[in-house]
Amino acid sequence: MKEIKKIAVLTSGGDAPGMNAAIRSVVRAGIDAGYEVYGINRGYHGLLKGEINKMSTRDVSEIIQRGGTMLMTARSREFATPEGVAKAKEMLDIFGIDALVVIGGDGTFRGAKDLAEQGVAVIGIPATIDNDVASTEATIGFDTATNTAIEAIDKIRETASSHERCSVIEVMGRNAGYIALTVGIGCGAECVLIPEVPFDFEEDVCQVLIKGRNIGKHHFIVVLAEGAGNAVEMSKKIEEKTGIETRPTVLGYLQRGGAPTANDRNLASLMGIKAVECLQNGKAGRLMVVKDGAVKDIEIKKGLSMTKTISPEMLSEVKKLF
Length: 322
Hints:
42% of the residues lie in helices and 18% in strands. It is of the alpha/beta class. The strands form two sheets. The protein has a seven-stranded mixed sheet with strand order 3-2-1-4-5-10-11, sandwiched between helices. It has a four-stranded parallel sheet with strand order 7-8-6-9, sandwiched between helices. Helix 1 runs parallel beside helix 9 (262-280), helix 2 crosses helix 3 (82-94) and helix 5 crosses helix 6 (178-187). The relative contact order is 0.17.
């Protein structure tokens, strides 16, 4: 890897609480290492447009507590093409950028891998509320999103209890059920429905709710991952089959906003430091990951080849609490 003098950082894909903390960490650790640090606005889309500006430690003051991303984020169809990747490489060369730190999820890292194959020194930091990056035990934003959802469900439970209702809460996560499962455990839900594990509506939902009603329960919480169904449709089916008054709530983008938790701020900060250390040690094409509770780095290609899922056995264990 050639000598590094200038590095840049961008955020791509969906925003996640803690992205600003990661940006702050990369900028400050980079400057401390003697690098010139640049911020790229609007992810790969902004890279193609040359939206690149030099950053100072003052530019990242007072952002660690803010959700979202100060560098903004956008998706780019052009970058997804070989021509787009080549153009991005040219733009980095025009600005004299020697290394690029990208903050995002698997889609962001696939773009990073493409740039690495063009000779760009790239480091990836996982930030997505879905926690669906297979190579890491935790992603920036997941802890905040689950805590936000639990706080909302705690409030919904109070009105559900007052009216003796069932509440179906749809949470985010795309095709992954990590948010739903974690939130379901944390809020004491009667049912958790996730895309990784097929469920029988009659047995896994209706029977559970009816049995609960028969032993004196007056309210019910069903946590539904967005990849496993639709809260409105599920609510109608539950009310028709059980006679229990049921209301849907879709938490939606509420989970992606708000101040990051201490866990997400710390994780983002440590990953930013580790990313810069990799560059100092001549290591590129790496992903920051959490392994056995510690921040480590692995090869991007290896990380993208990994898979992880929620097993039926794991959900079966959790059902002991329902």
